[in-house]
Write a structure and sequence with these properties.
The protein has 324 residues and is α/β, with parallel strands linked by helices. The chain is 46% helix and 11% strand. An eight-stranded mixed beta sheet has the order 3-2-1-4-5-6-7-8, sandwiched between helices.
Length: 324
């Protein structure tokens, strides 16, 4: 069936977030900071306590980013049931655990409970919507809205529909995310793992190979990015960075000059066997790198670092959703 929107992206005021773990809770914090009313639901017994703790911990950082007019943690409501959470939603963000059958059944349940014309987006990090929308009565409004952790700080969201999604729903979601302060990539086709995850995964697999073969330590690998290309990627990306390597000749000169190195055995894109030895090496290496810093210390350090980069590159959110 064709998708008919219940409201415009500009008029959307209440967001329902189903699933309130690390990703779902991050979405809650983001939407609250952008001035929306948020209703959350999660089946875990201690979900509300953990969610409110996450929002409270994130709020000082969000204040540095700049809050929308009227933004407040007090605009969060935690509903006792899924149906109550989505009853008056203008947009729904699903962030359940990454299990295909769970996603299918939950999206079907959300579709049945959510008012007609309201877009339902999944935070899945890898499943195509085509595989998740099979049980829904109205798959036309189901889209992927894939964020990066933490959603309240990392701007990127990748939006794509499935084979039964109406392109109008994809366009609505992309417009809504943009108004909500996200940096949106609207994909014109499904791709397993989407775009950023596939690039991230290639780097991750090569890192695992290096550790497995004793070629580099965890600390060496992290430093090679944070002290090297990561500083450029923060505001230019790998393609434009490589184009600059070609000087005034740009990417064409770079490819002509460095293209033959693509035949060199510099990478091994097949994943290594994640055996006990490699797993232990990664776990122990990260523990060594963390030193005396707790998880909370590291999260605070990461969040502040991202704030500093966004501020230094003049990419702090400038717009805020309209108030009623």
């Amino acid at each position: 069936m064709p998708y008919t929107p219940a409201t415009t992206p500009e008029a959307a005021r209440r967001v329902a977030c189903t699933g309130a773990g690390v990703i779902g809770g991050g979405w809650v914090a983001h939407f609250l900071a952008r001035g929306y009313d948020v209703t959350a639901w999660d089946p875990a017994g201690d979900a509300e306590e953990k969610l409110r703790r996450l929002v409270a911990a994130a709020w000082p950082v969000l204040e540095q980013l700049g809050l929308a007019d009227g933004a407040s943690p007090d605009r969060l409501t935690v509903a006792p049931t899924l149906a109550e959470a989505v009853a008056d939603a203008d947009f729904v963000q699903e962030s359940a655990p990454e299990k295909l059958e769970l996603k299918r059944s939950l999206l079907a349940e959300l579709d049945a409970a959510t008012p007609p014309g309201v877009v339902i987006a999944s935070s899945t990090s890898g499943y195509p919507m085509t595989e998740m929308q099979t049980a829904a009565a109205d798959p036309s409004r189901l889209v992927v809205g894939h964020p990066f952790n933490p959603p309240y700080l990392i701007p990127l969201v990748e939006v794509v529909g499935g084979t039964r999604t109406d392109p109008a729903a994809v366009a609505w979601a992309s417009r809504f995310y943009g108004l909500a302060g996200k940096s949106v990539i609207t994909m014109d086709r499904e791709l397993p793992g989407f775009i950023a995850n596939r690039l991230q995964e290639a780097l991750w697999r090569e890192a695992l190979h290096m550790v497995a073969n004793g070629e580099a330590t965890v600390a060496d690998i992290d430093a090679s990015i944070t002290e090297g290309p990561g500083l450029r990627w923060a505001f230019m990306g790998p393609c434009l960075t490589f184009a600059l390597a070609g000087g005034e000749g740009g990417m064409a000169h770079m490819l002509d000059h460095f293209g033959p190195s693509l035949k060199s055995p510099w990478t091994r894109l097949e994943a290594p066997e994640l055996d006990r030895a490699l797993r232990d090496a990664m776990v122990n290496g990260c523990a060594t790198a963390a030193g005396n810093r707790t998880y909370t210390d590291l999260v605070t350090e990461r969040d502040q670092g991202i704030i500093n980069i966004l501020r230094a590159t003049n990419r702090l959110p400038q717009s805020a959703p309209r108030q009623p």
